[in-house]
Amino acid sequence: MGAIYRREVGAFFTSSIAYVFLAVFFIFGGYFFSINTLAAGTTNMAGVFSNLFLVIIFLIPILTMRLFSEEKKQKTEQGLLTAPVSLWGIVLGKYFAAMTMYLIAISIVFVYALILSLFGTVAWMTLLSNFLALLLLGSAFSAVCVFISSLTENQVVSAVAGFVCLMLLYMIDVIAGSINVSWLQNFLYDLSFYSRYYEFTCGIFNLSSVLFYVSTAVLFNFFTVRVFEKRRWS
């Protein structure tokens, strides 16, 4: 897994993906920080974290689109599958490479907090709760998009399909609100990604939400492993 991880991290920086991803994330993050926090004259960064939810919906599919689709397009997938590495090692190596890039991006919020600390008191525990929410949300969304990347050899298709899926997950609350069947509505509300994320931005730590995001990440990584297990023996 270590070799796969190092190769993928290096590939991010030898291509333009890492620089585009980080630049766009920092630009939008800085914009929301300036209008929601600095312009408002507050040290409350809840508005920043709330808006970053939409930013990562756009950016994570771009970050993950090439991870497996490129292997399939360049016909290097079979070499990867026959390498002396477990399928879990292959999938997790690529997944953690994407998560490393994501972690670098979201760490910018600590720079914002240091700037705010020069002018007022920062609620560091609330900030850490929000950061954890971003990390957990990104881990779940990245696993979904890595799975989608394993299904196609076209990077554009992977990115678009990833964006559509993440938007649907974001709109679960809207979809649930339009359904009159109570048990189905409650079921969809339980699957809500945004409401669980919003709890963190309000400073509410909910262990069930942590388990929800972690379980989603594990489940979709498992699906990706199953995709390649099927291809290995086909």
Can you describe this structure?
With about 230 residues, the protein is an all-alpha fold. The chain contains 13 helices and no strands. The two termini are about 25 Å apart. The relative contact order is 0.14.
Uncertain regions spanning at least 5 consecutive residues: none
Residues in helices, as a percent range: over 70%
Compressed to H and E, one letter per element, the order equals: HHHHHHHHHHHHH
Structural class by helix and strand composition: mainly alpha
Count of individual beta strands: 0
Global geometry = globular
Number of helices: 13
Roughly how many Å is the radius of gyration? 19 Å
**Amount of beta strand:** under 5%
How far apart are the first and last residues' alpha carbons, in Å?
23 Å
Features:
234 residues, globular
Brief rundown of the structure:
This protein has 13 helices and no strands. It is mainly α.
Write the layout of secondary structure elements.
Elements: H1 2-14, H2 17-38, H3 46-64, H4 69-73, H5 77-81, H6 87-106, H7 108-117, H8 124-149, H9 155-170, H10 172-177, H11 182-190, H12 193-201, H13 207-233
Helix pairs in contact: 1-6, 2-3, 2-6, 2-7, 3-8, 3-9, 3-12, 6-8, 6-13, 8-9, 8-12, 8-13
